[in-house]
Design goal:
By secondary structure, this protein is α+β, with helices and mostly antiparallel strands. Helices cover 52% and strands 20% of the residues. Strands 3-4-7-6-5 form a five-stranded mixed sheet. Strands 8-9-2-19 form a four-stranded antiparallel sheet. Strand 16 (301-305) and strand 17 form a beta hairpin.
Amino acid sequence: MMNLARWKVVLVVLATLLGLLFTLPNLLPAKVRASLPAFMPSNTLHLGLDLQGGSSLLYSVDTAALRTERLTNMEEDIRSNFRDKNIGFTDLALNNGEIGVRITDPAQVNDAATDLRNLFGASLAGAAGGREINVTVAPDQRLRIAFVPEAFDAEAAKAVEQNIEVIRRRIDQSGTKELNPVRQGKDRIFIEAAGESDPEKLKRLIGQTAKLSFQMLDENASPQDVAEGRIPPGDEVLPSSDGRVPSYLVHKRQVVTGEMLTSASAGFDQQGGGSEVELRFNGIGARRFGDITRENVGKRFAIVLDGKVLSAPNIEGPIPGGSGRITGNFTPESANELATLLRAGSLPAPMKVEEQRTVGAELGADAVHAGTLSAIVGLAATMVFMLLIYGGLFGGVSLIALGVNALMIIGVMSFTQATLTLPGIAGLILTLAVAVDANVLIYERMRDELRSGKSLISSMEAGFSRAWGTIFDANMTHIFSALIMFNLGSGPVKGFAWTLSIGVLTTVFSAVLVTQVLLAWWFRTARPKTLPIA
């Protein structure tokens, strides 16, 4: 005890100063934090939804729509491929999660099946061999094309992860840093936005699929046939986004898609006035865009976003260079939102809102007030207990260690930008309340050693060394429990577990090292003949 290692003193001083440094921004006004030098920490505690109010959304990824979209694209590939190979076919259609087609010439059935297997990397039915598509030869010269169930499950799981990555990119593009999409279960994504009181704005940013495509209009079809529901093969009817034109008949084949974009930005329409979205394509997109505009001068093409036609301009001439623009009834805000979505990319699979929740700022303020009051009451009770049982010196040392512990917890949470929730406050209060348990074990061990006739120095050293095993074991069980809650829980449970984990580590440090350094300093200075707790 008299020969305390210097590294312990340095570590305690350094930890205390760092805890104070990273906690300090929480006590400063926003203007003062903004004026701090760059090397100074300025992050504050990130309050969760239940403390500062905000919105939360629970989305489910529509895997059925994903399957339909994939099969629809395959249907168009089959149509084009058979026409190129001069394979006669009829009844090409998507039904009940699979594509069916009848080959008109019996002699071409096997060739057609082989051609599709080569086209999609497909396998024989019942022998998937790790591939994704089954091609089955059915009676009456029919072929059936469907996903292998296990392969599609893997595709759906991948789509969920890709959706999360796209959402993160949209958050980064918009400059909103307070959102963190989290996967829940097999196909759900939970998003919490503390401080965001408008869930509709959140849904526009996150939930829109943002699939952009350029498709040629079919201007040769009979309007009467279309009105009576006789849609030509390879065509589809899409509604207008603004309602000025009821619908458009377009070719299903997408000549250019949003995946071929390299940039998108909001701009000003010099000709018609108002806002527009300016686009630039990659090499493949630029070549396709140039080809389609050169080969279809005088015709119209549709700019489609999420199944709705934004506009259908005439192609007045070839458009080389890989750039284009979208005009329409855009406001500066809506043009910027669309540009943000296009830059971040489209969602691989559409999503549906399963649950929407909004917490008012007033309710959050009430929760903060209640949590603060309970923390003050709990700390006051702990202080009174330690001072009454162990006196002003040893009780005061415990309370100083407790203060260092609180500084370290808040400092670590501010530095890591961990979210503090109402259960997190409960974890903080619990941690501080039981933090003095280690001091109680140390002090009682000192008393036992003194009763057995040991000297002051030996009793103090034994108090720390022999109580250490018990302190370590008790806190390890807390750590294991917190890790289990953090990995298996979600939302508030994670917040409680994270605060508890930080608190356990700082408690062991402060209760043992900080107390040891302070008592060693007192012993060297005062040279006591007895211990106040004897």
